[in-house]
Every structure is written in structure tokens, then in C-alpha cells.
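Case study.
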Amino acid sequence: DGGITQSPKYLFRKEGQNVTLSCEQNLNHDAMYWYRQDPGQGLRLIYYSQIVNDFQKGDIAEGYSVSREKKESFPLTVTSAQKNPTAFYLCASSMTGRTDTQYFGPGTRLTVL
Amino acid sequence: GQSLEQPSEVTAVEGAIVQINCTYQTSGFYGLSWYQQHDGGAPTFLSYNGLDGLEETGRFSSFLSRSDSYGYLLLQELQMKDSASYFCAGRGISGGYQKVTFGTGTKLQVIP
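After joint prediction, the assembly is written out as follows.
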């Protein structure tokens, strides 16, 4: 089955610690995205990547970092510089040039204590 | 930049029809997508309008009017399982890259 996996589903960290969220896809998509969703809010774009070894900042990139060393993988690191990291994080992918049709993973709910 | 506005909540009766509106302001606009998200779940793609007019997919239809910077999602024969949040998302160009911006979402409650 093709799809996107994110792990873990729930993640707890202490304030001041960096944490890396994983995102893997086997859809053979070139483009991948990270979004943040807060309760009752829409999705805000953190970073996106249209090809391996290239990525761009989204609307709320401060306090986050990414890498894209493999087509299948797009991990997101939430650094201690992120002022309010507790949120639901969603990873998505799409075919090249088809940002209109994105496929989402199940999400990781991060809680910083 | 891009911004998309939707009503925050809509309530409709099972079996009825409901329309969820989306107005947008965007540069380099390409088209409008719609996604459904159940509580605690991931968004799933419903439809995309790249051209003006109506797109129909089963019980769901989506409409776009570029001249009015407006679109809507129409859900027919509502079922209880349609209770979810619905997001419009505008596809445009920003900094030379294609980018999608999501609206804040409309929470649909279907009642018996």
C-alpha cells in the first residue's frame, strides 16, 4: 500500500529540547510539505520541498529546520527556538507541479511540557 | 501573499444540501482545492477547480469563479459521517515557487 507515514502519533518533550518528527512516503512524489495545525485553526505551512536537497521556508519557518536527503523522507526538527511548539504536525506530499492535490500523513501531536 | 476566508461553523440536517463558501485574495492564483478533515484525523483531498465552473464528484461538487475570487463546496444528501471540518486551499505562486495556502476551515455539523 502506498502512503505517508508519520511517527510517533503522540510525542512529549520537555521545554528546551529539540525534537525530530519523521515523515516517510512511498508514493514516489517529488514534493513534500510540513504543516502545523493549532486547535480550531487551519493548516499553516512550515517548510516545503519540491526536490531532493532543496527546500523553501513556508509562512512560519522560524524555530524549525528540515532536511531532504532522500526522496522518500522529509524530517522536521522542532528546535528550542520555537516559542510555542505544542501543536498537531502534518506532513504531506504531492506530484511535481500538483500542489493542489496533497496526500497527508496521519500527523504527530507534539506536546511540550 | 494569500488569504482565504470561510465561515467558521455550519449546521445542516441529515439528507439536506449545504454550501460552504470560500473567498480568497491571492497573487498568481492557479486554482482552489477542498479538503475534509475529521476530528483528530488527517485532511483528505476532495476536489480541485483550476477553471471556472462546477466540478462534480459523487455527492460533492465544487465551484469556482475567478472574477469574483470566490468558490464553494456543495454537499448533497448529507450523511452523519459528513460531520467534519472542510478547508479550501488556494494554489498560487510565491517567490517563484508554487504554494498552497489553506483557509481557516469550516466545521460542519450534521444533525438528525
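Observations recorded in class. Chain A has a mean pLDDT of 93. The CA atoms of residues 83 and 108 of chain A lie 18 Å apart. We will return to this complex in the next lecture.
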